[in-house]
Design goal:
Elements: E1 3-11, E2 15-18, H1 19-26, H2 30-37, E3 41-44, H3 51-64, E4 71-77, H4 88-96, E5 103-107, H5 113-127, E6 132-141, E7 154-164, E8 169-179, E9 185-186, E10 195-196, H6 198-220, E11 229-232, H7 237-250, H8 257-274, H9 281-292, E12 301-308, E13 312-320, H10 330-338, E14 341-342, H11 345-353, E15 362-364, E16 373-379, E17 382-387, H12 391-394
Bound molecules: acetoacetyl-coenzyme A (CAA).
Residues 29, 31-32, 35-37, 111, 148-149, 152, 184-185, 196, 198-199, 201-202, 205, 233, 235-236, 239, 276, 278, 307, 309 line the site of acetoacetyl-coenzyme A (CAA).
C-alpha cells in the first residue's frame, strides 16, 4: 500500500526583519548574512502568535476544505511548546473542530520531531488505511540578541496530512536513522532562548547525515544518482549546501556552483525568507521544492534529511505522485510571504523582549496582523485563543 504526504500547507508570521537591518545594527557586513549563512530575512512572531496559532493557521485551509474529517491522530511536533503538560495539539484540535475520536499528543526531539511524527503517522495509516493523520510541526526559533545564532531566527509551521494513496509524495520504506547524546544545541526549561555551540552543531549535523546516509544506502541499494532532488533540515540555507556538498564529496562527486544551485536552490527559497522553523524547516524546504521548481517532478525521488540537535537524524525518501501539481499551495504561500510587514530594528527588539505575563492576572493582548487564529489573552494562567473567522464557536478559556 502507498502511504505518504497527501497535503502540505505552510504558515508563517506576518512580520519580518530584513537581515540588512540587523547587519547595520550589529556592525556586520550584510554579506555575512546574505551570502555567508545564506539568509535574507527572518520571520518574527507577533506577541499574539505562539506555536498553537502558527500550527492552527497552517492547518486552517485543510479544515475549511473538509480534508480533516477522517483524522484520528494529531501529532504536534515542536521544541517551543507552551505548556509542560498539555499538548499544543489539543488547543489546535478544538480550533480546527476535529472529531473527538482523535489521539492527540505533542512530540519533542529538537528539529527532528516533525519527522518522528511523520513516520509514526505512516505506521498508523498502515494499520488504519481508511483513516488519516494530521502532523503539525510548528516552531519559533529564538537565540539571544547579539549572539551568533541571532540571524538564524525565524518562525513557521507546516501542516501535513498523512494518508493512504497520497497525492503529493509516497514515502518509501527504507530509512537510515541515528541517535547520539551530544550537547550541540539545547534549551533548559527555565530559558526562553536556545543555547548553542554553533560550530560544533554544524559538525554533528554532518556526522549524523553521513551515518544516516550509509544506512539508507545499504538498506535501499540506491546511490546518490538514484535521487533526483534533496531536501535538508535548514537551520540556515548555507548549512543545507554544506551538507549536500559533503554528501556528494563522500560519494566521489565534486559539485560546481551551478550544480549546487540546480540541486538545492528551489528547496531553499522559502527558508531564505522565513528563517529557521526548527521542526517545520525541512517540510518548508519540501514545499518550496515542489512549488518553486519549474520542472515536472512527477515520478522523481526526493531524498529527505531531518536533523534535531541533541541529536537524532534520519534520511528517507519519497516519490512525487502523478497530478501532485493540483495539490500545491504555491500561490498562497508566496502571497503570504509577499504580504508581510517589515519591522525596523527597534520594533523587532520590542517584540523580542515582549513576554506573556506570568502573574496569573487577566490580560487581553493587542491585535497584530495574524492568520485567522490568534492568542487573545491570558487569564488565570490559561491561554485564550480566538478565531477571527468564527469567534462565537472558538472563544474559550483553553
Ligand atoms: N561575506 C561573505 N561571507 C562571509 C562574510 C562576508 N562579509 N563574513 C563571514 N562570511 C562567512 C564565513 O566565512 C562563514 O562561512 P563558512 O561557514 O563557509 O566558513 C559564514 O559566513 C558564517 O560566518 P561565521 O562562521 O563567522 O559565523 P558565526 O560563527 O558568527 O555564526 C553559526 C555561524 C555558528 C552557524 C551561527 O549562525 C549559529 O550559532 N547558528 C545557530 C546554530 C545552528 O543553526 N546550527 C546548525 C546545525 S544544528 C541544527 O541544524 C539544529 C537547528 O536547527 C538549530
Amino acid at each position: 500500500m502507498k502511504i505518504g504526504i497527501d497535503q502540505l500547507h505552510l504558515y508563517s508570521s506576518h512580520y519580518y526583519v530584513d537581515l540588512k537591518t540587523l547587519a547595520v545594527e550589529r556592525g556586520v557586513d550584510v554579506d555575512k548574512f546574505y551570502r555567508g549563512i545564506g539568509q535574507e530575512q527572518m520571520a518574527v512572531p507577533a506577541p499574539d502568535e505562539d506555536v498553537v496559532t502558527l500550527g492552527a493557521n497552517a492547518a486552517q485551509g485543510l479544515a475549511a476544505g473538509g480534508d480533516l474529517d477522517d483524522v484520528e491522530l494529531l501529532l504536534f511536533a515542536t521544541e517551543s511548546g507552551i505548556d509542560q503538560s498539555k499538548a499544543a495539539g489539543v488547543f489546535v484540535h478544538r480550533l480546527l473542530g476535529l472529531s473527538e475520536r482523535c489521539r492527540t499528543v505533542e512530540l519533542k526531539q529538537a528539529c527532528y520531531s516533525g519527522t518522528a511524527a511523520v513516520q509514526l503517522a505512516v505506521q498508523y495509516v498502515a494499520r488504519h488505511p481508511g483513516k488519516k493523520a494530521l502532523v503539525i510541526a510548528a516552531d519559533i526559533a529564538r537565540y539571544e540578541l547579539n549572539s551568533p545564532g541571532e540571524a538564524t531566527q525565524g518562525c513557521g509551521a507546516a501542516a501535513l496530512v498523512i494518508a493512504a494513496n497520497p497525492r503529493l509524495l509516497c514515502l518509501e520504506e527504507e530509512a537510515g536513522f541515528y541517535t547520539e547524546d551530544v550537547m550541540d544545541f539545547w534549551r533548559p526549561n527555565y530559558r526562553s532562548e536556545a543555547l548553542v555551540d554553533g560550530k560544533y552543531s554544524t559538525l554533528v549535523y554532518i556526522r549524523a547525515l553521513e551515518a544516516c546516509w550509509k544506512q539508507y544506502e545499504a538498506l535501499s541499494g540506491r546511490s546518490l544518482s538514484d535521487i533526483d532532488s534533496f531536501c535538508y533540515h535548514i537551520p540556515f540555507t548555507k548549512m543545507a549546501e554544506k551538507a549536500h556538498r559533503k554528501l556528494c564529496r563522500s560519494a566521489g562527486a565534486a559539485l560546481s556552483a551551478s550544480e549546487m544551485a540546480a540541486a538545492l536552490d528551489d528547496s531553499l527559497k522559502y527558508s531564505r525568507r522565513m528563517g529557521n522553523c526548527y521542526t517545520a524547516s525541512m517540510y518548508v524546504g519540501l514545499a518550496s521544492l515542489l512549488e518553486q521548481s519549474g520542472r515536472d517532478l512527477t515520478g522523481k525521488r526526493i531524498g529527505l534529511f531531518s536533523y534535531g540537535s541533541g541529536c537524532v537524524g534520519e534520511f528517507f525518501s519519497g516519490i512525487v505522485q502523478p497530478g501532485y501539481q493540483t495539490m500545491l499551495q504555491g500561490a498562497l504561500h508566496q502571497e503570504m510571504l509577499r504580504d508581510r510587514t517589515e519591522l525596523s530594528y527597534q520594533q523587532y527588539e520590542d517584540i523580542f523582549n515582549y513576554r506573556v505575563p506570568t502573574d496569573g492576572g487577566v490580560y487581553t493582548f493587542p491585535e497584530y496582523r495574524t492568520g485567522p487564529y490568534r492568542l487573545k489573552g491570558i487569564n488565570g494562567h490559561k491561554r485564550e485563543y480566538e478565531s477571527l473567522v468564527e469567534s462565537d464557536e472558538s472563544d474559550s478559556a483553553g
